[in-house]
């Protein structure tokens, strides 16, 4: 287990890293956002970031996928309520 974190801690830290990216990208844009900024905003070391993502590019892809999953769950929830759009 990378970084000595439990699975629960890994899930929580990963989500906090992603949430920091959403916040920073809204404030300054993805291009200006650095790994150091993401780590600082999350309250972790830069090395911890790399325990979760190999690069900024991989991180941005994870942000996109995380957003897709959230929207899919939200849409499924709406469809399950009444079965219509």
User: How would you state the average pLDDT, rounded?
Assistant: 92
What gross morphology would you assign? globular
Number of helices: 4
Tally of domains: 1
Write down how many β-strands occur, each being a DSSP E stretch of 2 or more residues.
0
CATH class: Mainly Alpha
Structural class: mainly alpha
Task: Provide the CATH superfamily.
Answer: Tetracycline Repressor, domain 2
Task: Provide the CATH topology.
Answer: Tetracycline Repressor, domain 2
Which percent range describes the beta-strand content?
Answer: under 5%
| Spans where pLDDT lies below 50 across 5 or more residues | none
What's the N-to-C terminus distance?
Answer: 43 Å
Summarize the structure.
This protein has 85 residues and is mainly alpha-helical. Helix content is 75%, strand content 0%. It has one domain (2-82): Orthogonal Bundle (Tetracycline Repressor, domain 2), CATH 1.10.357.10.
Looking at this protein, list some descriptive labels.
globular, 85 residues, 75% helix
Describe the structure.
The protein is mostly helical. It has one domain (2-82): Tetracycline Repressor, domain 2 (Orthogonal Bundle), CATH 1.10.357.10. It is built from four helices and no strands. α1 packs across α2. The protein has helices at 7-28, 35-42, 46-52, 56-82.
Set down the secondary structure blueprint:
Blueprint: H1 7-28, H2 35-42, H3 46-52, H4 56-82
Helix pairs in contact: 1-2
